[in-house]
Design a protein that fits this description.
This protein has 14 helices and 9 strands. By secondary structure, the chain is of the alpha/beta class. Helix 1 links the parallel strand 1 and strand 2. Catalyzes the synthesis of 5,6-dihydrouridine (D), a modified base found in the D-loop of most tRNAs, via the reduction of the C5-C6 double bond in target uridines.
Length: 330
C-alpha cells in the first residue's frame, strides 16, 4: 500500500516538499497542489517554479491539474509528459466556492453528463502518461457516487483516489468511510483513500479493512506531524531538535523564494495552525505567535515554544470541525 502526501494549496508547495523530503521523507509520492492550465498552451513562469522537474529533483512528485476544459487538460498532460513525468492527477475534489463556481474541482461532480463528456474528449486519443483522479463522493449526497463511479469505470484512469466526503461537507465532520466501503467493490481501477487519517496506527486499520487498497493519501496530519510517514514505516517520532531545524530551514528557503521576510512570517503561521497540535498546551503562546508581524518577534515566540512546550509523538486533530448539518452515513 502506497503512502502519499496530499496536495494542500498554500502549504505543500515546492519549498515545503524539498525541505520535508530532506528532513523526514517517508511518502512514496508527494502530490503537488493544483495548477490550472489556460487556453494558451504553456505553463506560466509562476506555475513552472512549482512543477519544473529541476526544482523537484530527488523528490517523488506527481503534478495535479484543475480544469473543466478537456482541450486544456490534454495540452497540459502532453507538456508534463515531455518534462518526464509519468503520472498526472486530475483534481475533482476541491470544494472551494471560487473553484466550483467555475465548474472546476468538485464543481464537476454536479453534472455527471458534463463530466462524462469531459472524459470522452480528454481520452479521445491515447495519452502518453498515466492519469489518476482525485474525487469526492458527490456534490450533496454520497449516493451520487453510484453514477460517478459508473463514469469513472468507463475510462482508462490509472487510480481513483477518493476523499470520502461530499462537496457540501467541505473539510468538516467525519469522513464517510462507510460509504467508501460500500462502493469499493465496484471500482474498476486501483483505489486510493483520503480522509481523516490522523494517527499512524490507522493505516494498519485501513490495510486490514481494505486489503486491496492501492494507496492512502494523508494531508493535514502530515503537516501537523512532519514525521508521520516515517513513523508509519516504523521509524522514530519527530524530535524537538529536528523539528526546529526543519522549521529554520523552511523559514530561510521560503524567505529566499518570496524575497520578503514579512511574507514568510505570514506564511509560516499557516503551518503553525497544524504544527501546534503536536505540542501539549501552549494556547497563550500560539495566540501570541499569530499576533506577530516582525521576524524578530516571530522568532522569539518560536524559541519560547521550543524551550517550554512538551512535544507529543503524534498530533491531535484540533483542526476537526463538526459538519454544518446532520447526515446519515452508510
Amino acid at each position: 500500500m502506497l503512502l502519499t502526501f496530499a496536495p494542500m494549496e498554500g502549504l505543500t508547495g515546492v519549498v515545503f516538499r524539498r525541505c520535508h523530503h530532506r528532513y523526514f521523507g517517508g511518502p512514496d509520492l508527494y502530490y503537488m497542489p493544483f495548477v490550472t492550465p489556460t487556453h494558451e498552451p504553456r505553463f506560466t513562469e509562476r506555475q513552472l517554479r512549482d512543477i519544473a522537474p529541476e526544482n523537484n529533483k530527488g523528490v517523488p512528485v506527481v503534478p495535479q491539474l484543475l480544469t473543466q476544459s478537456p482541450e486544456n487538460f490534454r495540452w497540459a498532460v502532453l507538456s508534463l509528459a515531455s518534462m518526464g513525468y509519468c503520472e498526472v492527477n486530475l483534481n475533482l475534489g476541491c470544494p472551494m466556492g471560487t473553484v466550483t463556481a467555475k465548474g472546476k474541482g468538485s464543481g464537476m461532480l454536479r453534472d455527471p453528463f458534463a463530466l462524462e463528456s469531459f472524459f470522452e474528449k480528454a481520452f479521445s486519443e491515447p495519452l502518453p502518461i498515466a492519469v489518476s483522479v482525485k474525487t469526492r463522493l458527490g456534490w450533496r449526497n454520497e449516493d451520487e457516487f453510484e453514477d460517478l463511479l459508473r463514469i469513472y469505470n468507463r475510462f482508462p484512469i490509472s487510480e481513483l483516489i477518493v476523499h470520502a466526503r461530499v462537496r457540501e461537507d467541505f473539510y468538516k465532520g467525519d469522513a464517510r468511510r462507510g460509504a467508501f466501503a460500500r462502493f469499493l467493490p465496484g471500482f474498476a481501477h486501483r483505489a486510493g483513500y483520503n480522509g481523516d487519517i490522523v494517527m499512524t496506527r490507522e493505516l494498519a486499520e485501513l490495510r486490514d479493512a481494505f486489503p486491496n487498497l492501492h494507496s492512502v493519501m494523508v494531508g493535514r496530519a502530515a503537516v501537523a506531524n512532519p514525521a508521520f510517514f516515517r513513523m508509519a514505516r516504523g521509524g522514530p517520532a519527530c524530535s524537538r531538535k529536528e523539528l526546529f531545524a526543519f522549521h529554520r530551514t523552511l523559514f530561510e528557503e521560503l524567505t529566499e523564494a518570496f524575497g520578503s521576510v514579512g511574507n514568510t512570517v505570514g506564511h509560516m503561521k499557516q503551518y503553525w495552525f497544524y504544527l501546534r497540535t503536536l505540542f501539549e498546551g501552549g494556547e497563550r503562546i500560539f495566540k501570541k505567535l499569530l499576533k506577530t508581524r516582525r521576524a524578530g518577534d516571530y522568532m522569539a515566540v518560536v524559541s519560547e515554544i521550543e524551550e517550554t512546550l512538551p512535544l507529543q509523538p503524534e498530533a491531535k486533530p484540533l483542526w476537526w470541525k463538526p459538519s454544518s448539518g446532520s447526515r446519515s452515513e452508510s
